[in-house]
Amino acid sequence: MSRRRGARRPHSSAEWGVRGGLAIGAALLGTMSVAHSLAYMTRAAAPERAHMLAPWDGRITAILSEKMSGPEASDADRREADQLAREALRQDPTAVAAVATLGIDAQIRGDTATARKIFPYSEMLSRRDLRTRLWAIEDAVGRGDLPGALRNYDIALRTSRIATDLLFPVLVTAIGDDQTRAALVHTLAKRPAWVDQFIAYVSGNGPDARATARLFEALQQRRLSQSEGARAALITRLLAQGHVEDAWHYYATVTPGVDRRMSRDPEFVANRTTPSPFDWNPVGDSGIATTIQRGEHGGIFDFSVPPSLGGPLLEQLQVLPPGSYIIEGRSTGIDQSDATSPYWVLHCGEGRELGRVVMPASSRNNGRFLGRFEVPANCPVQHLALMARPTEQMAGTTGQIDNVRLFPAGH
Fold it and tell me: Which CATH class is domain 281-408?
């Protein structure tokens, strides 16, 4: 009987062997692929496990060598790390972490000459390796090469996300040295990508606020301004540390035209998001609402105080020389008797009151107010504040101030 058309010919044993081999190969390749994927997923958190899963991968071997040569590594650990690093470079000559391991271990053993031969290869492979940058910084400092150290600071801070946590505290401590500060100003004046972040950090951190002020003043001369937040943070730190003159000098540097004999911003036009103590600071608490707003002719200070409440509404720190001073201005919307109307008060820094000036109802004298303070010789810092007093009126105390200024009598 003839074979039916289309019937399949039975496979020979050789064909089954080939097919079986291909299936086994595919399974092995799949297993290796899965292992490699798992190794890459765990290489940072568990490099030992990753190396076991993919011992052929030079980059993973290099990461394990990096862990083995950490700060707490023993001599035996470092020898093993060197072996792993050499193996990694045989597997992948571009494994920069392995090069850094060999260089660091050589440096720790006191073999600086070998380290200086190794690290240039690491830098040639990648400028992003943080350990290479940290070694280069230390090596430059050890050779007295300040520009070289700052060049490597710049590279590290531009290429590593974690470099700021490591390097900003070191830079902040170093700015107390005049030479280092001058070199850092030169670097920052080029406006590297990390300059704003560093300015914000140094304004509120570091052991020497006066050195930070000198740094900021030098940057200001290079037309590199600081943000309002950084300025306010530094001035607050200087005042808290008792450096009143340094605080005022810095404020005057970044605020052209100010005069220590007068209050600032009489018409509330500065409109600062983050005012310093030398600027107007609205104070709101316990239901008291205070804001500086844009008005028809500049700005206005607006306030609203619920019945039976009182307290500070507006503040500004002064550094007036001894003498007689006039305070004058204009209000709108205040409808209180003199006994409950808001008033201006000037205190010495330690809290001693120098006098009060009551603001009459705005319907009197077109809202104009005028008064005098006497600043004694033993009062270098003063605190000017607008105070609200409790009232029984259902509407509480509300109003606006169009302008106010404090200046020397006879000026």
Answer: mainly beta
Q: What percent of the chain has pLDDT over 70?
A: 85
Total Cβ atoms within 10 A of residue 193: 10
What was the pLDDT predicted at 165? 94
**Residues 247 and 238 sit within 8 Å (Cβ to Cβ):** yes
Pairing of strands 382-388, 343-348: antiparallel
Report domain extents, the chain.
31-254, 281-408
Q: Distance (Å, rounded) from C-alpha 216 to C-alpha 157?
A: 20
* Mean pLDDT of the 343-355 span: 93
Per DSSP, the three-state class of 398 is strand
Tell me whether residue 301 is exposed, middle or buried, using C-beta atoms within 10 angstroms of its C-beta: 0 to 12, 13 to 18, 19 or more.
buried
> Which pLDDT does position 50 carry in this prediction?
58
Say yes or no to pLDDT of 409 above 70.
yes
- Taking only the tens place, the pLDDT of each residue in 77-128 is 888 888 888 887 888 888 888 888 888 888 889 898 998 898 888 888 888 8
pLDDT tens digits along 195-249: 999 999 999 998 899 999 999 999 999 999 899 999 999 999 999 999 999 999 9
CA 107-110-116 angle, to 5 degrees, is: 45
> Which residues sit opposite 311 in a β-bridge?
388
Contact 293, 394 (CB under 8 A): no
CB atoms within 10 A of CB 39: 22
In one-letter notation, the amino acid at residue 21 is: G
The DSSP line for 294-323 is: EETTEEEEEEEE-TT--EEEEEEEE-PPSE
Say how far apart CA 330 and CA 335 lie, in whole Å: 14
Q: What is the pLDDT of residues 39-57, one digit of tens each?
A: 444 445 555 565 565 565 7
Task: Give the HSE-up count for residue 387: Cα atoms under 13 Å, Cβ half-sphere.
Answer: 20
Q: Are 250 and 213 in contact (CB under 8 A)?
A: yes
**Beta-carbon contacts of residue 308 (< 8 Å; ≥ 6 apart):** 390, 391, 392
DSSP 131: H
Q: What is the pTM of this model?
A: 0.79
Q: Is the Cβ–Cβ distance between 290 and 284 less than 8 Å? A: yes
C-beta of residue 320 within 8 angstroms of C-beta of residue 375: yes
User: Angle 163-174/178-188 helices, nearest 10 degrees?
Assistant: 130
CATH code for residues 31-254:
1.25.40
- Residue 385, helix vs strand vs coil: strand
Which residue type does 115 have?
Answer: A
